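Example record

One chain of 294 residues, shown exactly as stored in the release files.
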Amino acid sequence: MISIENKQVREKVRDFIGGAFSGVACTLAGHPFDTLKVRLQTEGTTGRFKGMTHCLTTTIKEEGILALYKGATPPMVGMSIINSCMFGTLAIVKKKIHPDTTTPITLPEIMVSGAITGWAVSFVATPIETVKSKLQVQYSGTKLYSGPIDCIQKVVRQEGIQGLYRALIPTGFQRNSLWAYFGGYELANRYLKREDGTMTVGRSFLAGGVAGTGFWCTNFPFDVIRSRIMTMPNDKVTGKPIYSGMIDCAKKIYAVDGWRGFWKGFTPCLLRTFPANGATFVAYEFVMKMIPAA
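Predicted structure tokens for this chain:
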């Protein structure tokens, strides 16, 4: 007989493993679109790219098709860690919010659990995604970092450990939209489940795409702000970072680009959403089936 305590530990480990595999799947399916998104976000409307197609063709022409996978190593490892923490933390938070195992958890409870999980995961996601973003915006002839380890070393040497956490607050607001992510997945699940209560791979993929769409539609301006802060250079005159914080960054984006600036890169983001998040939940559900519940 397995004790209740051992069952709980097994379930937590199961969620963390499922999350790790989902992170790998998410990166493989969505990283090229993410590179285009970050490049468009950081360049703004007055930058070097006229739009998504121009960004794609210019990147491939000047740097080769593998440039679309620049910075893929940090998210390959990082998304495994982030998603592992995300799914594992979500399971813990849901049990705290809804401890009664005899009744199903409600949709509002899942959404609150997602929001809390988002802020918690931000402490893990911020440094990983800072490194990823810095590598993604290395253009031809402007290579500052030879790889993720070199990037981390240089950032810490120049700015201290806080250099990896400058975008923590906007990342927290961005990740807060996990309420829409897990809420959207649960809602889609309820409509897409077959009569016997099971989900096919195709239906899980579709539900994941719905979840991702809800996530990005509710947080994209914060994602633009955090991308700017993560990749910001120092002012050439003062030598200080060009943004003093989230509010200052938002004001400067609006002053130059207006409201359009907060939605720069949204098209490749939406194109990335279905394959990346569909793959995320397919991988997660696959692991859940491969590792039976205690």
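Notes: The chain has a mean pLDDT of 85.
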